[in-house]
TrEMBL record:
Pfam families: NAP. Residues 228-281 have a biased composition (Acidic residues). It is found in: Cytoplasm; Nucleus. Multitasking protein, involved in apoptosis, transcription, nucleosome assembly and histone chaperoning. Isoform 2 anti-apoptotic activity is mediated by inhibition of the GZMA-activated DNase, NME1. In the course of cytotoxic T-lymphocyte (CTL)-induced apoptosis, GZMA cleaves SET, disrupting its binding to NME1 and releasing NME1 inhibition. Isoform 1 and isoform 2 are potent inhibitors of protein phosphatase 2A. This is Protein SET. Transmembrane segments: none annotated. It comes from Oryctolagus cuniculus. Residues 1-12 have a biased composition (Pro residues). GO terms for biological process: nucleosome assembly. It comes from the Eukaryota. InterPro entries: NAP-like_sf (IPR037231), NAP_family (IPR002164). Residues 13-35, 160-172 have a biased composition (Basic and acidic residues). Gene3D superfamilies: 1.20.5.1500, Nucleosome assembly protein.
Length: 281
């Protein structure tokens, strides 16, 4: 008889299970193998589309990279009218400021222009140029660092050799500065920012280069305009002082109200006493 609804399914007879088991396994394995082959074919189609997309995306990036150039040029001309724009931008950037010692900041006050140039095919790398006014630290007018990917995808970098003026090599003085700073300021100064130009140990993961290219260069104004935290703290302290003064005035007003209340009570008691005397008479 057929089991009623809700009843557990009846197991097949053992003989049927045993006789069909091997055949079922063979069918299952064959189906799985066919499915794997079909998945591989579909995956090849997906990979082909991804390659096609990459080529088209690259063409779009190259097109708009060229269209941006006149605007970058115009922006550089306008930035040149603002004294200390780039040093302020770097100091206000949390990751870059962590790499700057006091003397680095002094040297970067002579930095007048920064340019980031992606190579034409974009994939093969980029160059960052730093333009300096005449300064007491080095002879160079331009310091550059380039990042390259060769055809096999291996990264490398190269940079301008800094021609330091006598006794002004900040990369050699950084360790001495650290010792003085640790005694005076109870914390170590970072290694000089300018050691970045001589460090080619990990060109494929150059954090500073990537930050300048991908974060600062697209919109440096947002970091230049970051408010000075010291000024904000000062304003906060002034606000606190104002609040204290207001609270003091409120306390005085409350004390005055209490005194007035006490005087009113005394007057009321005096009036009641006079009324009582009048009644006795």
């Amino acid at each position: 008889p057929r089991p009623g609804p809700g009843a557990p399914p009846q197991p097949l007879p053992k003989k049927e299970l045993n006789s069909n088991h091997d055949g079922a396994d063979e069918t299952s394995e064959k189906e799985q193998q066919e499915a794997i082959e079909h998945i591989d074919e579909v995956q090849n189609e997906i990979d082909r589309l991804n390659e096609q997309a990459s080529e088209e995306i690259l063409k779009v990036e190259q097109k708009y990279n060229k269209l941006r150039q006149p605007f970058f040029q115009k922006r550089s001309e306008l930035i040149a009218k603002i004294p200390n724009f780039w040093v302020t931008t770097f100091v206000n950037h949390p990751q870059v400021s962590a790499l700057l010692g006091e003397e680095d900041e002094e040297a970067l006050h002579y930095l007048t222009r920064v340019e980031v140039t992606e190579f034409e095919d974009i994939k093969s790398g980029y160059r960052i140029d730093f333009y300096f006014d005449e300064n007491p630290y080095f002879e160079n007018k331009v310091l550059s660092k380039e990042f390259h990917l060769n055809e096999s995808g291996d990264p490398s970098s190269k940079s301008t050799e800094i021609k330091w003026k006598s006794g002004k090599d900040l990369t050699k003085r950084s360790s001495q500065t650290q010792n003085k700073a640790s005694r005076k300021r109870q914390h170590e100064e970072p290694e000089s920012f300018f050691t970045w130009f001589t460090d080619h140990s990990d060109a494929g993961a150059d954090e500073l280069g990537e930050v300048i290219k991908d974060d600062i260069w697209p919109n440096p104004l947002q970091y230049y305009l970051v408010p000075d935290m010291d000024d904000e703290e000062g304003e906060g302290e002034e606000d606190d002082d104002d609040d204290d003064e207001e609270e003091g005035l409120e306390d005085i007003d409350e004390e005055g109200d209490e005194d007035e209340g006490e005087e009113d009570e005394d007057e009321d008691e005096g009036e009641e006493g006079e009324e009582d005397e009048g009644e006795d008479d």
